[in-house]
Amino acid sequence: MGFSKRLHCLRWNSRKTGLQEAGVAVVKRKGATTRPESIGRVLLAWYARSKRDLPWRASSPDPYAVWVSEIMLQQTQVERVREFFVRFMERFPTVHDLAAAREPTVLKYWEGLGYYRRARQLHAAAKQIVHEHGGEFPRTVEGLRSLPGIGRYTAGAIGSIAFDLATPIVEANSRRVIARLVGHAAPLDGPGGDEPIWEIAAGLVPPRHPGRFNQALMDLGAMICTPKLPLCSRCPLASACVAHQTNRVAAIPAQAKRRPVKQVQETAVVLRHGESVLVERRGPGEWWEGLWDFPRGSGTAAKRGRRLGLVTYSVTHHRIECAVREQIMTRRTTPTKAQRWVKVTSLDALAMTAPGRRIARLVARSGD
DNA sequence: AAGTCGGGGAC
DNA sequence: GTCCCAGACTT
Fold it and tell me: Closest by alpha carbon to A179, among A259, A258, A255, A236?
């Protein structure tokens, strides 16, 4: 379907749109900026003068750089990704460098960023691209989605930004922008989810500069159309925004219902022999798979040894209090397959979990 | 449709 | 403390 045809289907003032069937409020006004092509023009103009200066935009549209950045940005704020991206690209400048690397090395460069499955899938996908696609990225949305770690959003992002495919994206920013723009008040985590938002996004993305348009949606959401206290007075789409025009910006999108936090108490044991400590790598099915940590348990672990401190941290609906104890060994126990005795000064070389890294600092300090 | 995966910064 | 974040994947 051509762009103009699709435009017609999605005209906001049309009586027979899929938007109505999807339960989306229809804009009654016929203001000039309410038409999708006008939205695109206004947004692209705003983007040209207001876009954020981000390291992965310097080399774009290098598909590899776009891909790495998009994986890092999944559920992770832009400002945190910046330095990780720069370091990662210095170490793995091309998909061939990444494919040739060992997984522990890749995880080390991901340490602290979270969601480590992303790093393992990125590495696996790099090998696929090199060994099954001749080092070339798939240039279709379907091809991109077949790679591990690339879902609906990321395929749309890479496709539009790197390959100029007129395909939509919906993530935290554009979801909020579009919901407010059309006055979509239904909760986006309820029945139907954000499928209506995807349909609207598909009707908005222009045939020319789709990547810039999608990035403009995200920048607008991050800089102007923020979750709290949005800067509507500076928004280029304010005149077309249903939420703004009806004074419902604060209520849209509806808040997702949050789940209760589970309290957990556990004990970490630092077995020490001379300058070495015992660490173990998290295995399949465990949190932080592939990363190193100290032996820990939530059961009634041995409470022997000197207390080094208390490490508290939160992960996904859990709040954990971890008591850290040190036991001086007269000899090294035989490590299991997932364990290693490591010099305290060599812990830096391992990819460790964030709590494990904090425990490591406790250990290093206790030796002073 | 719901649960799971991390971490840090803003407030 | 709570909320938020350029989602993907499994069950």
Answer: A255
Per-residue pLDDT band for A282 (boundaries 50, 70, 90) equals: very high
* Identity of the amino acid at A139: R
Q: Tens digits of per-residue pLDDT, A205-227? A: 999 999 999 999 999 999 999 99
Task: Say if residue A290's pLDDT is above 90.
Answer: yes
CATH 3.90.79.10 segments of chain A: 262-366
> How far is Cα A176 from Cα A186, in angstroms, rounded to an integer?
12
- Residue A187 — very low, low, confident or very high, per pLDDT cuts 50/70/90? confident
CATH code that applies to domain A3-251? 1.10.340.30
Cβ proximity of A234 and A291 under 8 Å: no
* Protein residues with beta carbon less than 7 Å from any atom of strand C: A 52, 54, 56-57, 69-70, 73-78, 115, 121, 148-155, 157, 171-173, 176, 215, 218-219, 221-222, 227-228, 255-256, 258, 261, 314, 319
Could you tell me where in chain A the CATH 1.10.340.30 domains are found? 3-251
The whole-number Å distance from A14's CA to B8's C1' is 45
Q: Nearest nucleotide by C1' from A56 CA?
A: C6
Among residues A70, A111, A171, A326, which one is catalytic? A70
Interval A78-112: pLDDT, tens:
999 999 999 999 999 999 999 999 999 999 999 99
Residue A198 has pLDDT above 80, yes or no: yes
Q: Is the distance between the Cβ of A247 and the closest atom of strand B smaller than 7 Å?
A: no
* Cα–Cα separations (whole angstroms), residue A360 to A1, A108, A109, A245, A291: 58, 15, 18, 54, 14
Q: CA A2, C1' B9: Å apart?
A: 43
Surface-to-core class of residue A354, CB atoms within 10 Å of its CB (0-12 exposed, 13-18 middle, 19+ buried)? middle
- CATH fit for domain A262-366, picks 3.10.20.310, 3.90.550.10, 3.90.79.10, 3.90.1030.10: 3.90.79.10
- Within 7 Å of a protein beta carbon, the nucleotides of strand C are 1-9
**A21 catalytically annotated:** no
